[in-house]
Structure formats: structure tokens, C-alpha cells
Amino acid sequence: MSAVMKARAMDHQQQPVQLAQPVQLAELLRGFMPFAVMCLALGIAPLVLSPYHTVMLVPIVAYGVALLGMNVLFGYTGLLSFGHAMFLAIGAYATAVATRYGILSFECIVLIAAAAGGVFSLLIGALCVRFTHIFFGVLTLAFGMLVHSFLFKFYEVTGGDQGMRVLRPTLLGIEWDMSATQFLSGPFFYYCLALYLLIGVIVFRVVRSPLGLHLRAIRDNENKARYLGVRVYRLRLFAFVLSGVLASVAGAILSISTGLADPELAYWPQSGNLIFMLILGGATTFAGPGLGALIFVVLHETLASYTHYWRFMLGATLVFLVLLLPDGLLGTLARRLPKRAERKAP
Amino acid sequence: MINRRQFSQAALGVAGFAIGAPAFAQNQPLRLGLLAIRSGVGAFLGEDSIRAVQWGVQRLNAAGGIAGRKVELVIQEESTPKDTIERFRHLVLREKVDAVHGLISTGVTLAVAPVAEEERVLLQCWDGTTQNGVQESMPKTRFVFRSTDNECEAVMGALLTVKHMKGKFATIAGINPDYSYGRNCWETFKALLTRYGIEAKVVSEQWVKVGTTDLTTNVAALGAAKPDLIFTSMFLSDLPIFLRQASAAGLLTNTKLVAPTGGGQINELRNAFVPEGSLLGHNTFFHAQPGASELHKAFVADYRDRYKVLPTSSADRAYFNLMAYKAGVEKAVGATGRWPKVDEIAEAIVGVEVESLGGRGRYRDDKIAEQFFYQGLVRHQAGSASLDFADTTAIFSDKLQKPAGADYWNWIKSANFPI
Amino acid sequence: MQYMNLIMAGLFQAAVLFLVACGLQLIFGVQKIVNLACGSFYALGAFFAITVVGLLQSLELPMVLLLPVLVLSGLVIGLAGAPLELLLRPIYRRDPSYQLLMTFGLVLMFQDVFRFFWGPVPRSMDSTLYTIYGSLELSGFRVPVYNLLVIAASLLIALALGQFLKHSRLGRIVRATAENRNITEAMGVNSAKVFTLVFALGCALGTVGGALVIPTSAASMTMAAELVVDAFAVVIIGGLGSMAGAMAGAIVVGLMRAIAVAYMPEVEILAIYLVVVAVLLFRPAGLFGRSTA
């Protein structure tokens, strides 16, 4: 994790001292700026893309929201959850239940999904965050499988393999009378993008706060942090719950875009996909995972349209990433820049 | 308030009309999108369907196509509901197909159909219609056509059980796939037995997760229960696996087997583990059906020649939809004198009778298909390991399917059945 | 006593699960890697066995040799784990989370490898082979001798493995490396070679499991992901890193499934997960595991 330690070292350098240009750039890359740039790009995209491609952007935003949370959990707190897809499902099913009982306001739906995610992540997290690393991963994997089985088995409530229908919500109280493609590539996309930006700002404030520093301290050296008075268990649980809440909100967005809450959302390879996106962009940076979501969705769609063997390609990409670019694309960029500049400097 | 897209669509429409739409369209092929299962336990269903459509399209194009336009196929994969919705959108928005045929799994059909309605795209489903879905999500569709109810086979299986096996069993057991389809078939079977006054005790109910390949414990549990009759609505590769194990465990020696949905596995089933007298259903197509048409014979011969195995009913469902589409388009062209719009084609498809591989078929007013169903009793032919059949019955679905708008379970209790 | 056939069925499943779980535990115990691709090796063993048996049948080999042929073919294809271990080398000293990711990538790749070589449709063996050893009458219920042989084979492998680890020189080296890699290296052991051996062995256990199960079922692209669910239940119940745990967990899962299927079929898979949850709540380290933080 040397790259991460370097990031921490650079945090300490945030003093009014004349820094070399490339280091400043690297800092920027790790911070909020790429995120803002990406949101801007996403905002302009519908003007240049076809409706089909614009609709594809909705899952990117949804995954982005989930990954903001997962990055807090992994990038900043060092816990890799291999079952987070269960929260996507929880958010999706909460949404389905809400629309079935007549709650069609998207604002309410987001709150309900967040609440459902919060409750479940509190319960599950309370148990899981006692452990770290591999055991944490295994436990979260097990819980994910448990949720998946529940969704299948209790078909009277959850619809079993058929899932539950999700009706179109109202945004800001307005009913949008247009086709699904128009709705999803128009008002809904922009609403979710705004939500994504807002959540991004909030999460950024959190990770740059003293609380964020505590999280990183826990990630780097748990015992030392404890000696310093950091409440390890509580903060880990906080990170877990935050990520669960955000993943549930993401699940709500996803289910509205497909019109369906289906149990496959909780299947464990889905969690694998989330982690893939997480490290694709770079878990050591703030914006990396969101970028990873973009690349993953585009990659998946392109590959699936052209070859039967897209799973192989995706798997090979993942193996390649882990071996050669563990910091992800953005993270590697942020790490290499100062080095290149040093070579150029006198 | 007109948005940008509506405006540009209107502009294009005017321009197209000015250019002279029918002549322009004549030179362009008709693009038909297919959504078929390409991998996993249901892959053979998708394969069969694709092969049948390809065979049908080849013959169509050789005879001039549909209303003078040749047909081009664009094939995408049916997998999970979410991914299949994405593939559907890909077909419609990027590949710009004129219609979409496909879909076999129940969950996926329920997920994609509303999307098709909203996008105003003609969707003809090969399979996947089930009772709950009909009531909840799509009471009246404009652009979506659905297959015959999945439960028709269970209904027919129950009726034939009553006819052939009444009085010969006292206890029954069910081993069914653990999802809506399996549950509905099993409940249907029990309900009909009750209706015909057969008091059979249920000694075991097994639920097999779809895609499971290890059934040892299920076989053991059934063995412990010792039923006189086993009912199963398994139709994937779990069926031959179950039968092989059951037979090896001696479960099938004095037990009656009712498998009204098992015909799709005909290439995997053998005399060694399917007892004589078992009731096996072939869905809407049987390769050796009595009174087969020339079309049927030609298809079976070509298929066997090319692929070395027997075709199953998935082929028939896919072919039926292709023919129904052709008939609908040509009828609408005749009625309007130009290339018809999507809703005109949809309206025209309703009620037209077509000749499919398995016999005649049509779509009724609520856009649910009507076709023949075939089931028969297994007979072992000396010198052959593969199944042969005696006493094959054919029943048209109007006797097996609940009418539009009726409640399924009430209909089961009160309908006039053909025995 | 009709419980006998239920127990036999449960033990058969346990025997196969044990092999896969054992492989998982071995790899975790020594290399601290959780091999998500364990299910993929299971499937690989199954597919490969189908091909081998089909080949031998066409060469008219007496099929009485079915069981040893299956075990051998499982072992042979399990060696495919050795070159794959090279991929894992760079990440041993990294955060263990990356190992989960790497093996997940392998899972994805394997699915399409199966598709490429064996097609997308599930494959099974010639149906007559399952009963090649005949069957035994047990309280009015016929148990194919094959099932009993598999249980016996699994026990033998467990014993052999135990002996190997405890008494052989190589086994002791393996255990030492598991305890403390650095010190063992300092003593002159080529830990890289040990790791390759252990990984290949762990994979081979999985492939043998898949090969043994194939006469009774079918090999499909998706069986790998499905098995991971079961394998993890076994490992959590038994305790991560423990061989005895693999056996205990496998027996619990196998028997629980057999009983649940017979008496409460509605809740079958959930029954197993309820046990998993109970273990997680009250003894997260599992029955035999050491609590690893």
C-alpha cells in the first residue's frame, strides 16, 4: 500500500510552503477536481450522445453514488466489502415496496431507500467491522449470499425470481409524461446527476475532515490509532453505514432505470463488479471509483455487443489491473506525475 | 409542450413522406431483433429457437421476404432481467430493429414487456407467460404479444393423468423448479386432481433451485417418502439428472411419472431411466406428432440432417411468431396500401391464423397465443435406447388456457375440460 | 430405518464439498489467499472428466475403472493451478483484498474458457456409467455403490492429506511456511516452490471433487459461481484455515441439506444460511478456526 502511504504523507504537506508544480497537480488529481470535471462532462454528454447512450449514463451515476460510499470504506478506512451488492438490492426492493404502496415522490423514495440501507448496514456492519481484511471480505460475502437467498426464497413478499415492479416516480412533484427513454435520458438523468454531485460534495467534506483523517489512521495502523484515542470500532461502523446508505440510494436509482427490483442485484459476482469499478479508477483518489464506473459500464456494453466472450475480457482486465495498476488509472497517474517531474527538474 | 425529440421526429416524418416512403422502404431489409438465451442451463432453448427462425427466414427470403422486403436477423443474448433490458434497448435504439422476438424466462419477460410498451416497439414473446404476470403488470398491451400460459402443460398433464391413471395411485410427490413456474404447475396439478375427485395424499414436495445439478438429497428424500406417483415440471437439464439418479435409486420401479414439461429434453432422455407408461409432455411441438403437415416433416428432416438431434417446441414457438409477424405485416400492408406503422401491424397480427411447425396457431384478442399441445405415454421400443410414444393426445389451447380477464384459480374449478 | 438413505445422500454431498473446501483451506492456511476461483476449478474438473471419460469410452476401456480414472483426470487437470499461481505471486505481500479481486477475475475468465472449450450448454456423462458399480439395498432403498465409493475416496484423501501434512518432510515444510513464511525462508526453504505446490494441490482437490460428482449430475458454466456459495458456507461454519473445519463444515452442510430437503423442503437453502448466521453471531471464527483479524 505504498501509494496510499504516499498520499498520506502528502496530506501532511498541506502547508503554505512552495511546492513543486507536479506535486500540486498530483494533489489535485487525488482531490475533488477530477470529480467535478467528470460531473461536468456527464452533464454535457446528453447533448452529444444519442438517447441510447444517455440512458446508459444513469447506471454510471448510480454506481458512482454507491462507489463514493465504498471508497470511504475501502480507500479511506481499508475495509473491502465483498457483499455490497446486497445494499443495491435492498435499495431497489425498498423502492419497489414504496411505489407499490403509492409513494411516488422520488425524494421520499430516496429517503426510504437510504433508511432501509442504514438499518441493514447498521445490523450487518455491527458484526462485520469487528474483523478486517480477508475475514471482513469473507463475512460480507456470506451476508451478501444470505440476502440473495432471502430474496429468492420469500417469493410471497419479494416476488422471488420475478422480482418486483418499480413504477416511475415523480421528480420534484412533477409527473413527466414522456416515454421511458426520454424520461431516463432527460429529467431523471439530470436529477440523479445533481444528486451525485451533492453527495460527492458531502462525502468529500467528510473525508477531508478530522473524521476522515481518523479513518485513514485506522486504515494505516489500527493499534496506533487506538492508542491515540481513535474509536476504531465506531468509526469503522460509521464508514460501513455510510457506504450502505449510499449503495441503497444507488439501488433505488438502478431499479427505477430498469423498472424492476430483481434478486440478481444481490448475487455475489455483482459485488465483484462493484469492486472492479472501485479499483479500476483508483481507490486512492477521490474521483477514481466514479471514473471506474464510467469505464466499466462502457467496457461492459461494448464488449457484450461484440463478443460472446466478454466475461473473459473483463476478467483479464481485472487481473491485469491488480497485477500492474493496483492504484487504478487515476491513482497511477497521480502517483507517476511527481516522479516524472522530478526527473525533468534540474 | 413539444420537446426537441418530438419536433425532430415530426420533421423526419414529413420528409420521409415527401420522399415516398413505400418505395424507399422496399429496398431496405426488414430487421428483426432476437433475444435468445445463449448460455447456461437454458441455452438449448435459445439455440433451438434461433435455428428455427433462421430456417424460416431462409425460406421466406427465398420466396421474396415479407411484403417484398427481405428479413435480416440481429441476435442478442437473453440473460438476467436487467441485462436483457439493456440488450433490448440496444436492439431498438442502436440496431434500429423493426420488431423484437424472443424471451423465454418468466422473470425476464415480465421485466422487458413494460419497456417495450413504453418504447412502442412490437415485442413477440416466445415463452414466459405466467399467471401472476398476466394479472399484475400488463392487463392490456398494445405492442406486446405473449405466449400461451405456461400452465397449459400442467393442466393437460393433470387431465391426462386423470384419464390414464385414475385409481392407480394413492400418494403423490412433486419435485418442481423453485420459482413461480414450478409452483404454479404443482398447484395446478393438485387442484385439478381434487376437482376430479381423486384423493391423493401428498407425501413430499421438493423444490429444486434452477440451475442445480446435484439432486442426490432430493432423490433420497423422495425415496424415503415412497410415493405412487411423481409429478415434475422440471424442463431443463435437471430433469434427466433427476431421472437418472431416481432410476439408479430404484425410485421409479413401481412409481408413475408425470412430466408434462419434459419433452424439451427428448434428446437426453433414454428408456433406461424413463419407465414405460410415463406421461411426457412435448409442449407445442412433437417431432413424431400424428397428422404432421408437410412443413413439419420438412423441418424435422432438415433439422436432424443439419444438427443431428431432434428439434423441440422452442423451435415451434419461434417459428410461429415469425409467421404471425409475416401474416400481420402483409395484412396491414394490404389494408393500408403502404408500409404499416407499428400499431397497425400489432392490430393486424391479432386473430390471423398461421401454419406453424406444430400445427395451426393464432393470437387471440388479448394478444395471448393459442396453439396445439401434445402429450404422450412413453413406450419402450425394442432395439432403441431413445423414447418412443404411444397414445399421443393433441389438445388446442383454447381448452387449456383461461379466457381473457378470468381469475386463474376460479377458472380451474369451473371450466369445461375435454375429458 | 429410512434415515439411512438420507444420511447417505448427505454424506455424498459432504464428501464432494469437503474436497473443495479442503482445497480452499489449504490455500488459505499457507498462502493466506481466499481462492474465489475454487468453484471454477471444481467445474474444470467436471468438464475435463467428461472429455476424458468420453475419450476412454471410445477407446473401449473397461469402465470398471471409472473411479480411478476420474480421480486421475482430476489430479491431472488440477496441475493447471500451478501456472496460475505465477499470476498470484506479485500480490502475496500486498493487501489481501487484492487477492480476492484477482481470483474473482479468474472466475470471470474461467466461465468463458468453459464456454469456449465445452460450449454453452450443460454437459453430462454417458448415463449408464453411474450405475457401473451396481447398487446396494439399504433398508428398502437402493444406494448406488458409486456414492459409497466416493465417500470412501474422500475419506482416504483426507487421511492421506493429514498424514502428508503431519509426518512427511514436505508436509512439515508446508506447515512451517504457513506458520511463518519469513523465518522458513531464512532457513533456506524455497517458499516460492512451496507456494506453487500448495496452490496446485489445493486446486487439484477442487478438480477431483468436480470429477467425482460428474456421473451424478452435469457440468455447466454457472456451476462455479453456485459452488462458491456452498463452499463458503462450509468454510465459515468450519472455520477459516482449518482442515478439520473443512470436514466438520462439509458434514454439517451436507447433512443439513439432506434433512432440510426431506422435512422442510421449502426452506432448504435458508436452513444452511441460518446456521451460517448463527455461527457468525456466536462464534465467528467457526467451529475450528482461529479468529483472524
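Residues 34 and 221 of chain A are 28 Å apart (CA to CA).
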